[in-house]
TrEMBL record, chain A:
InterPro entries, per database record: ABC/ECF_trnsptr_transmembrane
Subcellular location: Membrane
Transmembrane segments: 12-34, 40-58, 65-83, 89-108
Similarity annotation: Belongs to the CbiQ family.
Record keywords: Membrane, Transmembrane, Transmembrane helix
Protein name per its UniProtKB record: Energy-coupling factor transporter transmembrane protein BioN
Origin: domain of life: Bacteria
Entry keyword annotation includes Transmembrane: yes
Principal localisation: membrane
UniProt entry tagged with the keyword Membrane: yes
Gene this chain is encoded by: bioN
CC annotations in GO: plasma membrane
From TrEMBL, chain B:
Subcellular location(s) per record: Cell membrane
Full protein name: Biotin transporter
Superkingdom: Bacteria
Alphabetical list of InterPro entries matching this protein: BioY
Leader peptide range in chain numbering: none
Source organism (scientific name): Thalassovita mediterranea
Membrane topology: Multi-pass membrane protein
Length: 199, 179
């Protein structure tokens, strides 16, 4: 399973995941208080610098993750130009970009294992019982294991459809696809039970 | 116990897989992605509690950095974006869909899970998503609501599909479907 963590090593990779996530929460709340294009632009510029000091390749990865925002920002600016409130439109777009870019920076520089560690520590701190924690860990492992498996089986269904039909595969394949998930769940449940079960 | 856990995990995986496989052709030839259909199915097939847990598990993995949303999006950024309200709304949508589907399970037709999916996946989900956009965008609530009209026809078709698939699963595996 491929995670979004960047393979480009950056200084941020060495920072602890917990404080990074806490910092991100505070930053995201703080962005709501930015209300001039200048201050918001300045914050975004600092963030851009934060990306750039890790090299061009890393910065490009960051930009790629921001691509879906382009359309949203065009629509927002169009709306604000129509009501003649360009400064407000700019603040909204810049604020959005800053919040998303900061969150992506944490995602790009924190490994899945470290995120899972933070989750584990958080659950311990919240006094979630070890039994529940083990169940959550097992569920996460099962999802990560079965996403490629289900996707592959879905692909096989589509191939079988294409071998028999000239038409593009239709929604009718969704029923056997959902059935695969239901049956896999049943089989894995049996397998878990045979190995002593989940307490 | 084991079955509850594996069904929650496998449906979280199904929601992800529906975002990864190519777009489907609807009866009218309109291509759609199936991820929101996966949310409805989590409710109609697993019921309220397990359905919502499957969605929470899926979103948790997205937040941890797996690119599982349709189009390969993921990470913490999507929860800061404009559509974050819809992601949080998915949990409530699956729960409400599941509650209604469980309540109407005795009817044994495709229409009741389809209506449950429409109430959860449109009537409950849209307001939460719209409030999320409102908080991010400073635009008028009315304008944002109108911008959602375009998505209603596609989502209604997905509700019908959710109903048909749930009914099909009910016939194929009696006793394993909550809704």
């Amino acid at each position: 399973m491929i995670s979004l963590t960047s393979e480009v090593r950056t200084p941020y990779h060495r920072w602890w995941a917990g404080p990074k996530l806490l910092g991100l929460c505070l930053f995201t709340v703080a962005t709501f208080y930015l209300d001039t294009p200048l201050s918001t632009g300045a914050v975004l510029a600092v963030l851009a610098l934060g990306y750039l000091i890790c090299g061009l390749r890393f910065a490009r990865q960051g930009l790629r993750l921001l691509r879906p925002l382009i359309w949203v920002c065009m629509i927002i600016m169009g709306y604000h130009i129509a009501i003649r409130d360009i400064a407000d439109g700019a603040v909204v777009c810049l604020r959005l970009a800053a919040a998303v870019a900061a969150a992506n920076l944490v995602t790009l520089t924190t490994r899945l294992e470290d995120m899972l560690d933070v989750l584990e520590r958080l659950f311990t701190r919240l006094h979630v019982s070890p039994r529940i924690r083990r169940r959550i860990a097992l569920a996460i492992a099962l999802v990560i294991r079965f996403i490629p498996e289900l996707t592959r089986k879905g692909g096989t269904l589509i191939e079988a459809w294409r071998a028999r039909s000239t038409k593009k595969f239709s929604w009718k394949l969704l029923l056997p696809f959902a059935l695969l998930a239901l049956d896999d769940a049943e089989q894995v449940a049996e397998a878990l039970k045979a190995r002593g079960g989940v307490e | 116990m084991e079955r509850n856990l594996t069904q929650i995990a496998l449906f979280a995986a199904l929601i992800a897989a529906l975002g990864l496989i190519p777009k489907f052709n609807l009866p009218l030839g309109v291509p759609i992605t199936g991820q929101s259909l996966g949310i409805m199915l989590a409710g109609t097939v697993l019921g309220a509690k397990r359905g919502a847990l499957a969605v929470i598990l899926f979103l948790g993995l997205v937040a941890l950095g797996l690119p599982l949303l349709a189009g390969g999006r993921g990470g913490l950024g999507v929860f800061s974006g404009v559509t974050a309200g819809f992601l949080f709304g998915w949990v409530v949508a699956a729960y409400v869909t599941g509650l209604l589907a469980e309540a109407w399970a005795g009817k044994g037709n495709w229409i009741s899970p389809a209506i449950a999916a429409a109430i959860g996946g449109i009537l409950v989900l849209y307001p939460i998503g719209i409030v999320g956009m409102y908080l991010k965008l400073d635009a008028s609530l009315m304008g944002l609501t109108k911008s959602m009209y375009a998505f209603i026809p596609g989502d209604l078709i997905k509700c019908v599909l959710a109903g048909l698939i749930t009914n099909g699963l009910r016939k194929a595996r009696p006793g394993m479907v909550a809704g």
